[in-house]
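[Meeting: bench + compute handoff]

Bench side (C.D.) handed over the final construct sequence. Compute side (W.E.) agreed to return the predicted structure before the next meeting so the bench team could plan truncations. Sequence as handed over:
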Amino acid sequence: MRWVLRNADQQDVERLSREVGLPISLARLLTVRGIQNAEEAQRFLNPSLQDLHSPYLMTGLRSAVERLRAAIERGETVFIYGDYDVDGTIAIVILKTALELCGGKVDYHVPHRIREGYGMRDEVIEQAADNGTRIIISVDTGIRAFAAAEAAQRRGIDLIVTDHHLPQSEGLPKALAVVNPNQFGCEYPCKSLCGAGVAFKIAQALLEATGRERLLPSFLKMVAIATIADAVPLVGENRVFAKLGLDGLRKPVNAGLRALLANCDLDGSRPLTAGDIAFRVAPRLNAAGRMDVAERVILLFTEKDATQAAEMAMQLNQLNGDRQQEEQRIIEEVQSKIESTPELKNAFCIVVDGYGWHRGVIGICATRVVERYCRPAIVFSCEDGEAHGSGRSIPAFHLLDALESCPELFTRFGGHAHAVGCALPVERVAELRSRLDAYARERLKPEDFIPVLQYDAEVGLDEIQRDFWEALQKLEPFGSGNPTPVFVARDAKLIQPHRVMKEKHIKLRVIPSDPAGNGRRFQRAHDVLGWRMAERAAQEPLLAGDTLDLAFTVEYNQHPNFGGVQLSLEDFARAQVPTVAAAQAASD
């Protein structure tokens, strides 16, 4: 791994520090995140509802809202067509709740991941038409649903498409309105909204138009969960959603939300972080769509009875446990195939397929492959002659463009630069593997496979105190676009051998080394936790007295007995031992 210091002009850092009255260290963190002046710093550190953009800046939204309000006035049932992940199901909850608050009637459809797959299907449109539906609105899907749009038009249904995925170069589906900040010509300022974020803008317009804007803060809790779960950049309007939504989640009102947070041991005794959502809440919600039926999420958040909601939350927890077991089984098989197949192990783009792999889990497995081999990867689950794939990529490789280089191979595909979904006949997987590898070899260099760790500053271990951690909290929530600050400490001395925890993780105890011979009598030891680093530590054992350079983030252990500031290891390297000549030069 290559360590790279994030660039920040020292004059810009000092100017921002003076203008805002911030410590130099915090001003530097803001500067490397693109904050240039006091006004931007104020919006970043203290986002408010006033920072939300007008919904009507989004192309197509006015027409969509006018048609929805007409449906409410006429007593028409609005049919919401969603998706099966956290983003899609929460988008349904947001829009359904807003429409009903405004007096509307709602029906909805959540595709089954296995039986239907991603995207709008024309047979669902046909069935809705047979049931008398006259208006359908999609959430988190539909931007490439040309056949479904034609079916809606043929059956006299007004279709509104709301989505955030990238449109095809050929254009947009034929619909009454298309609401997507990424469509050509749309000047909406925040292009990185998730699907639930786009649905929220529809809800915002409806609530404001009917005098119910006071209810907007209650929607931000759900938007925050979807925004963080979908890993969109937490900057601009997304930061407003995440920051205010996380604040609101400390006191949830919704029975399902209360039950879910309780199941995650998030009782409101401390502020919630984006990590709490990404690693505790989101996996339980995603487990519904991965392992069973995604409608469980909508039923949970629309349940009024606390006892029933608690039972539903427990069921999601069990599904998540099942997902973890299935993921581990598949990952072991995937890695075995790669390690035993030179064609796969040496590929610039890894395409691996297998039978009996749960289609709801292969996306996570693709992520694990990318993490381990530092290459773009697509994992296919094969069944009944069809290969269903989920892919993830590295920063240097646009995976959707790669798929668009051979569209004739697929029965369907879509996604964006770093995540895709697709399907094709099993007999075409080998050709896809060959063509994607050739495509990648034309565009990637060996250095693209070396992961880069960007860090924010070098600090001394003695600086890492509670007040240091508290200052960092002003930059929360962290995520894509606002990464958790990473620091480097040089010459940390191990005071005992590394300890393995749960066979996967390691724990170190370190103190600042004293190369200058200052002879400090007491040096505070720091706990350093290395998640999933047991295998690496076994290859290069860490012994008492070893001196390391550490790259880490700063966390706070809330345990009442042994809590406190702790370091979460990103990477480590053996400290460079100075030569005699270098040591003499330093002393001179």
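W.E. noted at the follow-up: DSSP finds 21 helices and 19 strands in the chain. C.D. will use this when planning the next construct.
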